[in-house]
Design brief:
The chain is an alpha+beta fold. The chain has 14 helices and 27 strands.
């Protein structure tokens, strides 16, 4: 008897505590701050009561007999659930639709596969929903909405809350073949309010580098030098002290603005998202999708704090697992009756007695009798009843709506020290579709770098990076530019202000990969040439008056060429003492210097230098080669290379190649001027291309032309 009295006292204390907790929650609900309920300033107001529902199908305005029976089953299920779990929040079962008619949540899911390849994968569906709809917060952050509109109405007005987002995304994922479910649960403030200012921008995340495992087979082990244990201990101690001081300085440097504020409603904020189970569509692991951002999350993510229930177009499940540690310990085996309570038994389910394992688990629970009673009552459900078909009309998205995925033509997302702006194609006349702005400070006032992405540009411009600190601009092009441009780095499109141009070298006959030019020098890099040339460096002198280039502007004067240096790769078909590695032409001094490749056993390269090779005697006749004009050092050369006739023939060939080189340098200068002129004209007259398959844009341009 004393034991029973103690148990009764403990039970009364627990009831009193639960009563105090429920009263405290009611006080919190009634004292929600105004900023938690009000719509954010960046979301324009919209009156849902003013929408026109007269043209909606009859299924939106009435319930069939099967739907009425489903509502009756749901009410009976909710009555049992409330009796057995009085401390749990009410389930989200049959909110009113846009016509004021109560509809069971599973019948609001309308599986649909839209005819766009991008929407066949979950990432494309999630991206479309997050971009196409405008987020609206819940009226009360701690309770689910009183209404749930059809996905067709949500698509029409391009706005909705987290439940509207989730139902639309779930409908698209199920239509694409995924095992997807809508989730009613709880999440953090940042997830519920779409606050990403503390997150790193996805465009700034660097891909993880996979370390290369080096084989240690036959590796010579070098013995390490002996070290003092005392010195190592002192060094480690000093490092720890330095790290502690640095950590304290960093903590002191963090301002109050950078510290996240404590959320008074943590754990109480209602949110809806999508659950994708593994199995179908070769999904390896179960994961969550936040419909506001379109990002995937692991089921152990600490941003998701608990789950009340989940549903799809076939059934409804209530979570009866402990969520005090969030969702990381939850089991998503929906066939497990200990973890999930199903509303409608599956057609292939058989009512059997609980296993010994289930009984042992139930006995360990405090509410063993209640759970057992709940299980017995569920056995009495109608096994033949199936979920009614969806009352929602077919979900359709036109080509124009799919191309223009932003409700207001533009979308802005703020991250930590970054801002992302997105536009639909053809909204901007310059083809701009996305812009990433990186800031130095958390207030986003000092710009460090701006990256822009373009589409449908006739000049094939794909991306532009602008460094605001160095003022350098880099344009990236997709293949197809008339000048075979791949990238162009510059500060200004004016000549000789510093330009680096990269080409698609495989499409060029000369194999030119990159050209770097400024006021005093020009360097060209080649790939895959038959003569094994890979670098050509040219130095220019000060410009002289009267030097101009034919076919160019009159204000452009040629720069005198001072030196031309070429570097060659090794040609395995030639001996090393005949294969030139580097040759230098010093134009003002009329000097030519040759350096040859080395053999494997050589240490010093052979060299030949021609100094003032072209001279004249007293009679005015030219003397090409003397002992004073040719200096050679060929320690490994054969008798052939020591022959004067060979040196004379080589000099004659070099004189011809020098003239050709000077001509090629002038052509490179002219090509660089042409590149700058073409780029200047392209930026002044930007043109966008329209694919023959883009019906939406072609119709829009035709309507604009007819209207004008």
């Amino acid at each position: 008897m004393e034991v029973l009295e103690e148990e009764e006292v403990e039970q009364a204390a627990e009831d009193q505590n639960s009563l105090n907790i429920s009263v405290g929650l009611q006080d919190v609900e009634t004292n929600v701050p105004e900023e938690e309920v009000s719509v954010p300033s960046d979301v324009p107001g919209f009156d849902w009561s003013s929408i026109d529902t007269s043209q909606l199908p009859s299924s939106y305005k009435t319930n069939s007999q099967k739907e009425k029976k489903m509502l009756h089953i749901a009410d009976h299920f909710l009555q049992q659930y409330t009796h057995l779990c009085p401390d749990r929040k009410p389930l989200f079962l049959h909110p009113a639709n846009e016509c004021g008619v109560e509809k069971f949540v599973s019948t609001t899911v309308r599986p649909t596969l839209l005819p766009y390849p991008e929407l066949y994968h979950w990432s494309g569906c999630a991206s479309f929903v997050s971009h196409y709809l405008t987020m609206e917060p819940l009226k009360c952050p701690m309770t689910p909405p009183s209404s749930l509109y059809s996905p067709t109405t949500i698509l029409k007005y391009q706005r909705g809350n987290c439940f509207d987002f989730s139902v639309l995304l779930c409908s698209m994922l199920i239509g694409a073949g995924y095992d997807a479910y809508c989730v009613h649960g709880y999440a953090t403030l940042e997830i519920c309010t779409l606050d990403q200012t503390q997150d790193l921008c996805p465009l700034l995340k660097k891909p993880q580098e996979i370390p290369m495992k080096k084989s240690r087979k036959y590796r010579v082990r070098i013995p390490s030098e002996p070290q003092s244990i005392y010195e190592l201990q002192q060094k480690a101690k000093n490092n720890e002290e330095a790290e502690d001081v640095e950590q304290k300085e960093e903590e002191e440097a963090v301002t109050e603005v950078e510290k996240p504020k404590r959320d008074p409603l943590h754990g109480l904020r209602v949110h809806a998202w999508v659950l994708v189970l593994s199995g179908k569509r070769k999904v390896p692991e179960t994961f969550f999708i936040n419909p506001f951002t379109g990002n995937s999350h692991d089921t152990t993510d600490e941003c998701f704090l608990g789950i009340e229930s989940i549903w799809n177009h076939r059934n409804y499940w209530v979570n009866i697992q402990d969520c005090r540690k969030g969702c990381k310990d939850l089991s998503f085996d929906l066939s497990d009756a200990v973890s999930w309570e199903i509303m409608l038994p599956e057609s292939d389910e058989l009512v059997t007695e609980p296993s010994e394992k289930d009984i042992n688990y139930l006995r360990s629970c405090q509410n063993y009798e209640s759970l057992l009673l709940f299980q017995q009552e569920t056995e009495e459900k109608d096994m033949s009843f199936e979920m009614p078909l969806s009352w929602v009309a077919r979900i359709e998205v036109s080509h124009r709506e799919f191309e223009n995925q932003y409700a207001q033509g533009k979308k802005e997302i703020f991250y930590e020290k970054a801002k992302v702006e997105k536009w639909a194609p053809y909204v901007n006349e310059n083809g701009l579709v996305e812009r990433l702005t990186v800031y130095e400070d958390l207030d986003c006032t000092e710009v460090v770098k701006v990256t822009e992405w373009f589409k449908n540009r006739e000049d094939m411009l794909d991306m532009r990076e602008m460094n605001k600190q160095t003022q350098l601009i880099t344009d990236y092009f997709i293949p197809g530019h008339s000048l075979l441009l791949k990238a162009h780095t510059y500060m200004s499109l004016e000549q000789e202000t510093g330009h680096t141009v990269e080409f698609y070298h495989k499409a060029r006959a000369d194999g030119l990969r990159k050209r770097v030019e400024n006021a005093t020098e020009m360097t060209e890099y080649f790939v895959g040439r038959e003569d094994f040339l890979h670098i050509r460096h040219v130095e220019f002198g000060e410009r002289e008056n009267g030097m101009s280039m034919a076919g160019t502007r009159t204000d452009v004067h040629l720069r005198p060429i001072v030196e031309i240096k070429e570097t060659f790769h090794r040609n395995p078909e030639k001996p090393a003492d005949e294969d030139i590695k580097e040759r230098v032409f010093v134009i003002p001094d009329d000097r030519i210097q040759l350096t040859y490749h080395l053999e494997d056993h050589d240490t010093i390269a052979s060299k030949v230098v021609y100094i003032r090779a072209l001279q004249k005697d007293r009679k005015g006749e030219e003397i090409f080669l003397t002992q004073d004009t040719c200096v050679k050092y060929q320690p490994w050369s054969s008798e052939k290379h020591k022959n004067v006739l060979h040196l004379y023939t080589l000099l004659w060939e070099l004189r011809k190649e020098q003239k050709e080189l000077k001509h090629q340098v002038r052509e490179s200068e002219a090509e660089m001027l042409n590149v700058l002129k073409v780029r200047e004209d392209e930026e002044a007259n930007i043109k966008l291309t329209v694919s023959m398959y883009n019906n939406a844009e072609r119709e829009r341009r035709y309507e604009a032309m007819v209207g004008s």
